[in-house]
């Protein structure tokens, strides 16, 4: 809220980073990182004691966002936590610390605090890898450009096209006159990784926990996955995700029940009239909007504290105001990465459920919330898993009758 002018400039320039063609070519990354997740989860099969789901999902999402944002294979699922992953975690904790203490909002105050407490080392470690990747990518692009100038003729056209990651697009924009500094580019990439990895992790964990609590809904999701993907192990495409309609309803219902952002802040650029009580909010007012309050209005969502994916079938969505669901924020400052996040989560959840069924002993009423800069489960996401019988529910029922 203190840098509206900078946000306007950067948002306009960064919007092309999330175009559909760019997202489509990320699917090999989504599929490969989820394959590793499925392999790692095998150690939990057959156990009667619940395990903490977020430990696995967090590493998967971090690997995905690192590869798609920077083109760097962090491989945290296979290795011990890297210096970068640890710095990312600690910087997120610092962001939470700052968010809950308004006197640290001004950058100059927080900079003095970081210096006095010796916290710059965290950001130094956080920036080390992105700075290195940016430097190497700029050098590689310069060498490639020189090579192309010397060899204007394309030899055979058979070379595999490299993955074009978010960082590539930012560098393209810079060459086209966007005038980002290297620090600007680094900060945008780090923001994508901090914002993208943890929010998707919490949502996926909540979604799988909800499906474990509601096995009938889980069966319905599994039936849809079977209908779209069959019982083989073929990789998931962007076209497949479009057909996973009920799964998306489950993810959206999860975000309605447990929106990741507890608060949204807006600095009014004009006077805003509130027609319900004939008040006017003057220009310059900082407004606080609560997604969890909006998402639990009974007039919008009957039985608002229950889990009902039918809240997001087409008929019900069309009945409601477009801002009745603001898990991805809304308006000019809506989440730019919402489509990327939804595609990534649909691939992860569908891959998980193709291989494992999820189970838990807890009830919906047992879920307690912890709120800081994000909203998450206070008691984690305890589940057990079993090898999935991929046959749809109606085939299983026929077998039982036989």
From TrEMBL:
<keyword id="KW-0479">Metal-binding</keyword>
<dbReference type="InterPro" id="IPR002401">
    <property type="entry name" value="Cyt_P450_E_grp-I"/>
</dbReference>
<dbReference type="GO" id="GO:0004497">
    <property type="term" value="F:monooxygenase activity"/>
</dbReference>
<dbReference type="InterPro" id="IPR001128">
    <property type="entry name" value="Cyt_P450"/>
</dbReference>
<comment type="similarity">
    <text>Belongs to the cytochrome P450 family.</text>
</comment>
<dbReference type="GO" id="GO:0005506">
    <property type="term" value="F:iron ion binding"/>
</dbReference>
<dbReference type="GO" id="GO:0005789">
    <property type="term" value="C:endoplasmic reticulum membrane"/>
</dbReference>
<dbReference type="GO" id="GO:0020037">
    <property type="term" value="F:heme binding"/>
</dbReference>
<feature type="binding site" description="axial binding residue">
    <location>
        <position position="335"/>
    </location>
    <ligand>
        <name>heme</name>
    </ligand>
</feature>
<dbReference type="Pfam" id="PF00067">
    <property type="entry name" value="p450"/>
</dbReference>
<keyword id="KW-0472">Membrane</keyword>
<dbReference type="InterPro" id="IPR036396">
    <property type="entry name" value="Cyt_P450_sf"/>
</dbReference>
<dbReference type="InterPro" id="IPR017972">
    <property type="entry name" value="Cyt_P450_CS"/>
</dbReference>
<keyword id="KW-0349">Heme</keyword>
<keyword id="KW-0560">Oxidoreductase</keyword>
<keyword id="KW-0408">Iron</keyword>
<keyword id="KW-0503">Monooxygenase</keyword>
<keyword id="KW-0492">Microsome</keyword>
<dbReference type="InterPro" id="IPR050196">
    <property type="entry name" value="Cytochrome_P450_Monoox"/>
</dbReference>
<protein>
    <recommendedName>
        <fullName>Cytochrome P450 4C1-like</fullName>
    </recommendedName>
</protein>
<keyword id="KW-0256">Endoplasmic reticulum</keyword>
<dbReference type="GO" id="GO:0016705">
    <property type="term" value="F:oxidoreductase activity, acting on paired donors, with incorporation or reduction of molecular oxygen"/>
</dbReference>
